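FAQ: What does the model actually see?

It sees only this:
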Amino acid sequence: MRILVRLGLAAFVLAWIFGPYALRSAVPIWLPFLIALGLELNFFVAGLRPMQPSRPDRGPQDADRERYGYGDDADELLLVREGDEEVWIPYSGEADEEPSALDLSPAAPDRGEPRRVSRHVRRFATGLALVCVLAIVFWIVERNTGWNGLNASTRAEAAARFSEEASRVARKPVTIRCDEAGNYVGAVQHADGVAAVGGELAYLTPERCLDLYRLAYKGEVEFNRTGRALAVLAHEAWHLRGVSDEGITECYAFQSGVQLGERLGLSTDTARRMMRRQVAENARLARASPAYGVPSECRDGGSLDLNPGVADFP
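And it is asked to produce this:
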């Protein structure tokens, strides 16, 4: 079982690194590492539990009773060892001498338990070492292939392109920066982007910047991730434009995301379908974050419709 888990982890990590973009976008890489670590800990703890020793019946067996005619009173029988054989003999205690073949030597100490624990410790260390090696391999590859893997001039060129597109939405010059250090977004803010309302600067996570880069410069599209990246960039641009309400900002972002996607290389139909998916996802995500739920007027012909003369929405 342990070998299969380790082989499966190694195979998945290699497939995640060198496989299709859809796999990398659908499954977070930390998930299989977390599962593998949990299984290794489970194997280790289970292996440390003391084994329940089996206690065989040392009394005469049915075959012995039939062969030697022993009765049911096992207290009148003695176990005598003769070489490698064990024989039960009747004994009433009347003789002055004890049976010479009776083996009364103390049992040898059980040395199996320390060896068993040491074996499980070695197995756990091996599994943990494998997880660490795979994590290091992933870190090295991701460092050279993710957003941080792009050279500085390419990142600067892409960020300038994102800033240009955001400026069109904000209707003023603004700057988009990709937060490589993780000081403003991501795990810090539990958000994909952040911007000061009415300001001139916004931050996006490197993951969203990479999705936008792959669309604009490589033509690589993963429907949900690409749509989310467009919506995030448009969302922060609307904050920079001066809209503070999160629900209204989302509504405007979904609509602006269509034109934004077109300018970055999508067809009108694909960009519109992406933003419609984002509208549908908003209804689900709003249950956890009600402030981000789009208002009821975010619809075709509603008061938040940016293009009331156009039938398609967003």
